[in-house]
Amino acid sequence: MMGKLIECQKLTKSFARIKAIDNVDLSVEPGQTLGLVGPNGAGKTTLFSLISGYIKPTSGEIRVLGHNPGTALIKGRIGALPQDTPFLQGISVEAQLSLYAKLQGYTGKAVKAEVRQVLKHLKIIDLARQYPETLSFGQRKRVSIAQTLIGKPELILLDEPTSGLDPVAANDVRKIIRDMGRQCTFIISSHNLDEIDDVCTEVIIIKQGKLVKHCPISELVERDSSLNLLLSHSLPDQAQKDLNLISDIDDVMTDPANPHRVTISFNSENPDQLQLEIMSTVQKHNVSIIEFSRGETLTGKVVDLVKG
Amino acid sequence: MKIKRIITLLGFDFYHSLFRLKGLAFLIPFTLFWYSTLRLLDQGGSEFLSSIEGLMLITRFTSLEVAQALLILHPPTLSVFLLTALTVTPLFVILGANNQLASDAASGSFRYLLLRCTRLEIFFARFLSAYCMITIALFFACLASTLISLDNDNHTLSETVAYATQGLFVILLYTFPYVAFMTIMSALMSSALGTILISACVYIATLVVIIYLNDDYPSISYLIPSAFKDDLIGMTSNNLTVAIPGLLAITIIYLSLAWIIFRKRNL
Question: Does the structure show a pLDDT above 60 at B92?
């Protein structure tokens, strides 16, 4: 088990008769940014809680950083943003974060310096002296994220890190994840699959407590075999015929729900050149391209896997 | 388990309890109660206690022999403080130690701590924090009693201070298992109010069971710390030899039960 960041073997957690996590085998290498996805009630939060040591497995084994999550040996090496977890009322943000810093071994002036540094990182230094109950949902969320960063943990678990945040704050959080992703491992649970696609390198998909897929996103989603277009008008028949004449194109599909949306599948050794050819063919028929993206979307793939 | 982390948690919880409902719900009634009691003693109470009527009153709580020792051999003000403190200990411990674990376990606030320390460290820190708050409050009540005693009772300074120290030690020893009892209740429950209600119910129910079965099974009274109260009031070395290990054993049993509950609790 040495070298693995997380290792689960036949991990099961039941609440009464419901198996929230069912016989999961999982192995996570360090240095990745992982997305944990699945429908509501899939067991994402339960898996987070097991990794964090908040709850104990009903059966099976879980090792985090080579140890049982409940042991003192890994305390301070994991940061976590649990969902809907309140801070203590009537105690300032700075006092609570200072406690966490002290518990992680900071002493004297280093305590305040570390707390101020994480608050500045999240651009919430002005909230330091405020009480949690006076903060908005988004502010509390950012304070919660700040506490995960204290002490530079090796593994950071974030449960819906950007839900409830305004777009600017959400973008800041994504930037922090991207920047810090080089130094530590993030596991992010989110229903926002575009966000997962944006910041993660690997994805773990679970459904009804079972592991459906764990692989690099690049392996799951084909980036170079399709082009998704959102057009100003429906694609004229002649344009479709012209596209089908291009040798590397396999298929041109119009979304039945939205005829302005077209997916073109291809198999080309030079996809960049082909992309230009497709775009000029479409525009030749006086159709503007409003939006385009190359490759399959993670959302589509996840939906397929979860439905299947 | 790291002692440093326990001390950090204890200091934080203790300091912040003093300014929050958690601590104030104990400190305000405690202060009012002792202020009024000690004021009565200061206004001629100790003089009354030294009289025959006072002696008769005290015999309601203990034997004549012990009452004589308390009111004649020792400063009566401090003796009354000792008797009163031992009598009201269950009530004030219920108020002061009810929220060791309950509401933070239910709200999920422990989740931030659990990433940085173990359950056992949180468990001990919260137990000790509650005990420290009650200890410090009792210390000040004892200090006030000592000052009143020095002013009103006819005993030397050294006698009074020695008896006050002894008395405080006995009260704190008696408080220990009660705080541990509240740890069990707090580990079981999800709110401070729920813990207060259930603790009061369990304690009263246990007392009733003990009273009912005591004749047939005398050892049943040792389920709760009050079985040792008479030994503590007597304060002789023979009595304390029985009471100290007895109360510590009850504390360990209570704390073990509380830990079994808390370690399995989903946080």
Answer: yes
